[in-house]
User: Fold this.
Amino acid sequence: MTIIRNLGGLLVGLAIGLNSPLAADTAQLKNDSASWIESQASRLEKANRNIWTYAEVGLEEHKSSKELQDLLKAEGFNVEAGVAGMPTAFVATYGQGAPVIGILAEFDALLGVSQSDSPKAEIGANPESGHACGHSIFGVGSVGGAMAIKQLIASGALKGTIKLYGTPAEETGIGKVYMLRAGMFKNDDVILHWHAGDKNQVSHSSSKALINAKFTFKGVAAHASAAPQSGRSALDAVELMSVGVQYMREHIKQEARIHSVITKGGGQPNVVPQDAEVWYYVRANSFDDAFSYFTWVREIAEAAAKMTKTELASVSVMSETHDMLGNRALAEALHRNFALMARPPGRPRNWRLPRRRKRNSRIPSAWISPPPDSRWPTSSNRYRRNSNLPRQLPPMSPTFHGGCPWAASAWRPTATACRRIPGRWWPPPAPPSAPRRC
Assistant:
């Protein structure tokens, strides 16, 4: 709940800052809003656990999307569902006039990472997928912040419009791209975005550009034992393409990333595969580099088809997203509010679960051992996944991203908290970090 409270306080604080001439006592409004969010703890925690349990993948998040929509409808938001041609995308609006503040909410899970709430490795309620990236708390935290801002608008303390965007399929880079193309964000003054991370901080760092595409090969089916000479294996083309990309890696910038999975490779061993498909993500620190590397990957696919006398039947680009641009002014505004909202990380007993998780994993203990008591708990990136358990733990600390939508070259501030010791906060909140690549 501390995470949702801090996020809500940050969003409310920025909204109040944008309306400062109308707020007589901004500090009191921020504290009142944080208290209101605390009063909603049971509702928000229940929604987080439900979405975490559903663990629905991109464009299939029907129950997760409804969970968030129901919370917003109950608070008087006008909810428009199925926007931008996606059944799980939605926009919830309250208020009227300027400023128009948007908040992004994600709620999709990842395939292949199902996990129960046990510290041991075991399958969760959804055996096929899980929230390994924290999107259950992401969506709920954003909704909690939007609801708190709505309370201020309804009371007359603030004027303006608050919009909560339910953005599906973030893991495949799809949701925000299609919402942007549909003009969903064009009338907003500011859009805020955050993400669970391994530390609490504010930054105006960038991200990697991404091109997401599937390559489909068409061959000739034949009996692999009786007439192999008559067949042309589409799977051979996929495998040779993979070999070519592996050799390509030596000659690209070290910050770039290329990863893939084979999504179709044939039905059974004694039939030469007629159809095969491979799914690639090509990432780089700039879109120009990503596009150059993707073009190279495509040429490798064409060459693989020639080597196997198969056909490169299609290259389906599912999404293209640019690297984000930092916004220092908004990052500093978030930082000021985060310094106000910082709270102690929680009770020592909350360390029991990560300690048990450490004992039941092969992760080196240095990566997940809690730090000395005098410091705010942080953890390594490797332990970041366990922060997505439905019961909130100290290592689960928010990384707040704000600005324009990712596909529109967004920015990512994160927010910093510290632990209370007699007489002062320690460590003191640091200023926003210099731009860096993630």
Remarks:
- Residues 324 and 409 are 4 Å apart (CA to CA).
- The first strand starts at residue 78 and ends at 81.
